[in-house]
Amino acid sequence: MISLSIIIPVYKVENYIRRCLESVIAQEDSGVEMECIVIDDKGPDNSMDIVHDVISNYHGTIDFKVVVHERNRGVAAGRNTGAKMANGEYIMFIDSDDYLKPGCVKSLLGASKDYPQADVIIGQFYSVREQKPSYDYLSSPVLYDNKEEIHRKFLRVILDCFPWNRLLRRKLIVDNQLYFQEGTIFEDVIWSYHLFDKVNAVLLIPDITYVYENNPTSAMNSTKEKSTATVRSFVFFCNEMLDQPYKGMFVDHHLYVFNILMKAIDTRMHACVTPEVSLSLNLVRNRIFRETLLSGRIFLAMFFLTAFPPFNNILRFSWFRSHFDRLGSVIRSLTLRK
C-alpha cells in the first residue's frame, strides 16, 4: 500500500526543479512506499526537460508519474489534479521552487504513527529569506485535538495557511472535497480555512522538514497586472468566510477577515483595479462593519473604521502596517474583556 503521495505542480522553475526532485529522491531511505506526481502546467521554460532527465536517470523505489495539462491552469489546478490522482494514505504538496530536508518523510510519517488521531501533521519550515525556522519556539510535538482550539489557532495565525510541508490524510481531502479554488490568487487562504474546519486533530512537530525559497518569479509574487485579480480574490475570500463563519468566534473570525480586507484595500491604494472590483471591495468592507456594529462590539467596529476614508490613509504609513497585527491583538483583548 502506498503510504504517501507527493504532489509537485511545475511551472517556470528551471532554476529550482532539479533540487526539488532530488530532495524527494533523498527521502527513499524512509522505508515507505511513495509515489511522486509531477504536474506539467505548460510553462515556457525548460523545467519539464529537467524533470524528464531526472526521472529517466532514477532507478529507485519511488513511483514517479507525470501528468500534462493541456494548457497553463495555475498551481491550484495542478494541486487538484495531483490530489485526485493520488493513491497514498497521506498527501503532501511541494512547491517546485522549494525542497524537502533530509529525513522529512521519516519525521512526518513517524509522527503519524505516534499520533494516529492527527489528520494534519505539520513540520517546521526554514525560510531562506528570513533565515529562520517557522516555529522556532517549538521544542516538542504539540497536538491540537479540540475543534474550537483549532479554529482559534488558525484565526490567530498560529496554524499557517500554507498547503505545503504537511501530511494531509487523503481521505479527509476526498471525503470533504477539499480542493483548491481555481482562478484565484493566494488560494491557500480559503483552502486552509475550510481544511481547519474539517480536521479533528492537528499535530505540530519541531523537526525542520522543508525549505521555503523566496522565488521572485513565483506565482505568489504579485505584479501590477495581477492587482485586480488579487483584490477580486480577497473579496471572494472575505465573503465566503463571512457566509460560513467559525461558530462562536465572532471577534477572532471578523479580525481575521478584516486583515484580509485591509490587504485588499492596501493593494487598491497602490495599483489600479477595475471599478467593478473596487465596488465589490467597498461592499464587503461595509458588510463587515455593519455586522460588527449590529453585534454591539463597539471597540471592534471603531477599529474597522480604519477601512473607510479618510481613515484608510493610515495604511500609507509603514508604522501602522508593521504594527497592524499587534493593534488587532489589543482590540481583541479589549473586545473580549468587555
UniProtKB/TrEMBL annotation:
Top-level division of the source organism's lineage: Bacteria
Keywords on record: Membrane, Transferase, Transmembrane, Transmembrane helix
This protein's name: Glycosyl transferase family 2
Domain spans labelled Glycosyltransferase 2-like: 5-173
Family annotation (PANTHER family): GLYCOSYLTRANSFERASE, UDP-GLCNAC:BETAGAL BETA-1,3-N-ACETYLGLUCOSAMINYLTRANSFERASE-LIKE PROTEIN 1
InterPro entries named in the record: Glyco_trans_2-like, Nucleotide-diphossugar_trans
Pfam families listed in its UniProt record: Glycos_transf_2
Any GO MF annotation of the entry: hexosyltransferase activity
CDD domains on file: Glyco_tranf_GTA_type (cd00761)
Transmembrane segments: 294-315
